Amino acid sequence: MHGDLNLIFSRVWSVCLLLVWICLGTRIIGVVGSHQGSIPLHVVKLWASAFGGEIKSISAKYSGSQLLQKKYKEFEQAVRVQEIDGLRLVKKLAENMEEMFHKKSEAMKRLVEAAEEAHLQHEEDPDLQYEYFNAVLINEIDEEGNSVELGGDFLLQPNDHFNNLSVNLSLSVVQVPTNMYNKDSAIVNGVYWSEALNKVFVDNFERDPSLIWQYFGSAKGFFRQYPGIKWRPDEHGVIAFDCRNRKWYIQAATSPKDVVILVDVSGSMKGLRLTIARQTVSSILDTLGDDDFFNVIAYNEELHYVEPCLNGTLVQADVTNKNHFRMNLDKLFAKGIGMLDVGLTEAFEVLYDFNQTGRGSACSQAIMLVTDGAVDTYDAVFAKYNWPDRKVRIFPYLIGRESAFADNLKWMACANKGYFTQISTLADVQENVMEYLHVLSRPKVIDQEHDTVWTEAYVDSTVSGHRSPISHMLPQAQKLEDGQGPILMTTVAMPVFSTKNETRNRGILLGVVGTDVPVSELLKTIPKYKLGIHGYAFAITNNGYILTHPDLRPLYEENKKRRKPNYSSVDLSEVEWEDKDDILRNAMVNRKTGTFSMEVKKTVDKGKRVLVLHNDYYYTDIKGTPFSLGVALSRGHGKYFFRGNVTVEEGLHDLEHPDVQLADEWTYCNTDEHPEHRYLSQIDAIKLYLSGREPHLKCDKELIQEVLFDAVVTAPLEAYWTNLVLNKSENSDKGVEIAYLGTRTGLSRINLFVVPDQLTNQDFLTAEDKEGVFNADHFPLWYKRAAEQVPGTFVYSLPFNTGNDNKSVVLASTAIQLLDERESPIAAAVGIQMKLEFFQRKFWTASRQCAALDGKCSISCDDENINCYLIDNNGFILVAEDYSLTGMFFGEAEGAVMNKLLLMGSFKRVTLYDYQAICRIFSESSDSARTLLDPYFAIFATVKWLLTELVIFMVEFNLYSWWYSDLTAKAQRGGRTMLVPCDTEYPAFISERTIKETTGNIDCEGCIKSFVIQQIPSSNLFMVVVDNKCDCSAAGPITMEPIEIMYILFTEVVLKRWLGGVWPEIGTGWLWSYVRL
């Protein structure tokens, strides 16, 4: 302990000395009038003007921007500009989604009706023998070459609608969990009567060809899936999948519930019993969903909340909370005497108090009792809290093989409308835990409540295409390792009940039917062209979790193949974090219709750049679902769109040009609805639609009219670019490689000035370049950035893609406005890709010019005493004498200068937050809980935070890595690293448009560093010339590295010690606070 205290005081003393040294030694302040800058401003202005004129001339010439602007001007009188009615738009989109969801629900209703009728007509036969197609055994043969039992020949053919998986569109298959007997009487009877679903599966698919997997999960445990497909066991020959554990099954089978789990931790629970009890609690947690609320209380002679911070309340059963409780189960130890009456009393009072707050599920309430026995029936407790209404059901789980106290537990269950289960081994846990679901489903069964339920979004773990929630059992060849992208899905499900007279009063649940709906199906109903360049649509569940949002990132960044933990429970407030009061979120959760506005900071280019926008939000509910829909429109050009008009003949003629492409993920025509249309390209579908020969082809008439208009207006650029290519005197050094344009309707034209094999960056404008092409929920990055520049200017940038080769090109783009007015809609954007070497050569040529009559320049970028940089409006270096600095943030190369620019207002820092971040941590072999529970460590962390914040504030110096190095080193010695979810804070930088030029001086340890920054005309670029004779490296760099937000748990004892024994009036218990490290 003395060693730790010495370390703490040593650290604090070091920081104090550092602060004194900073204050006395390095002063990063402007010196006014004390030193004349050695860099003449007029010379730098000359260089900037020369380079700006040259590079704009090249960009305008090869992009054809002036020609395209002229062509749109010619049509100015023929177009109608309209302001978007956001509220009307969101209501219309909600109606479209409602219609799509309704079609899926109707398909499920037909399955429910068929299943219930088939069961009604079936008589149970305990001796029934029936051969069915087992999903694992189909097409398997034995050693003698014969089909195995329950296998047989099952025709499978690749189908493009199911991503070329081999399926059978006429029949379904049946999967039975490995721990169940394939030919159990209950299973064989269920499989037999559910064969009637095959006809309905096929009929549903014919009515709605956009349907993918349909299935029936039986309460007996088997799973019927259509279309039929072969399943593969894991490497151990096991298929652990049990449909009854899936969220869609549980949500459909039961109503929302409030649950208190009581766990006996008396001395008799030692050893295997406690292990089984922990597993039982974990399995109960598996059955809880986002609509449920719970808590876990352990008891002996005292009560022990598994999470002490949540004493006396219930929490939502989302993934994060359930995982947190699971981790704490390992801290339970058996000792003492079990006082069940105390535990029951606490459980009843928690349920009652929580219900009185108006929170919770407001439906079912239950107490799950996990114990090895009860010495009494405790009827006095039940009489006081639960009788006569019996609103709380009791579900005892007797742990162990002994049955001495079973009668008391059985009485509790029967007297309180519950169910008794005995669990003797770990293998019994899962099956026995599931029994309570049948009891909780009885009210729905008896009342015949066929509620339609929708799950939150989840990531399909297989290849891009249509998959089901059981896809992890499909052939290994179809796995994500093939490099394909994953899919976000939601599932619609409905319960199936027994309608036989003899069972109606008992409420028998037969199972649940369901089908998957890819979120991409929702996006197809959203016309992106009506939302503008920065606009987007998003949907959330009734719990505030995101169903679809362009900022939802469910996968790890490194390989894009692993799902993040808790990805399905990302809250709207974590992506629309500027809404500090959750006004938008709460309104949407409460299914209201309305509007909301706020300034937002939208990151682009992999989070390295930021656009500051003012968004107007419009929201409403999607009827018949638990979802709410929102639309965000950016003010200015984002609130307007225009309609043009050309003849069909003109439009089709120009649409068929070989350089024309349409956005792959936009729906001009719905080619998925009918199989005969699936092979059509969007352009072919448009031609077929306009011919009038295909009445069943549904297309967006308005979008088609506008894309025909854009095709006609942009057509002259094809001939313009062709002339440039044919003119051998132009672009002789092949510095310009590509010219491209995009319009508000998703139409693109691309022209190559070099052969494809000679392209420096061959990913640009391809499917691999996700941010560079039109997507289902966003415009290309170069389009979005150009739209925010002053009209007539070009935006230049280096692409931030992976790989060093991508630093060798520069992109330039500019927006084409329809009108000269400020709020004119953006009609299109054009640009070029040029070689970085070509771009830099133009810069260095311009920087050698001077106005001296004798030709002797007073200063040049070739001089050893100055450094010349070309940076963009976000501070990234495009040109530097040291080529390795290309693409780097300017603050890392010239920290003192960047800090001065921030102080002078030439640049401003924008603080951003990422609540979906992934951090790399070092796993320690020691107990990691020490860092949270050791009071001295908590005090040390707090003091460290305060001092670090002070240092950062004074000198813009990143001390985090230095200060945290000792802890990191200790963890590194512990072994491997791992990726974990975390929250981070990080900066972005943006230039001030009104400041065109600035000079400054920095006093650094007795010498003065001068610099000049000059904007490049008609661009987003700045030339920065820095005197390098004065060394200011002591100031340290300014980086864009994210800082993890650490949440540290303080106990009463820690806070009291920290506050010198004075306890502020913040209540008792525990306090959550966060410290940013």
Model description:
The protein is of the alpha+beta class. It is built from 31 helices and 39 strands. β3 (157-159) and β4 form a beta hairpin. α19 packs across α21 (701-714). The longest helix has 36 residues, at 86-121.
Q: What about the largest sheet?
A: 7 strands, antiparallel
Given the C-alpha coordinates, what overall shape results? Answer: globular
Strands, count = 39
**CA radius of gyration:** 34 Å
**What fraction strand?**
15-25%
Distance between the termini: 23 Å
- What structural category characterises the helix and strand content? alpha+beta
Oligomer status: single chain
Give the number of helices. Answer: 31
Helix content: 25-40%
Query: What is the residue-averaged pLDDT?
Result: 83
Membrane topology: Single-pass type I membrane protein
Keywords: Calcium, Calcium channel, Calcium transport, Coiled coil, Disulfide bond, Glycoprotein, Ion channel, Ion transport, Membrane, Metal-binding, Signal, Transmembrane, Transmembrane helix, Transport, Voltage-gated channel
Protein name: VWFA domain-containing protein
Domain VWFA: 258-440
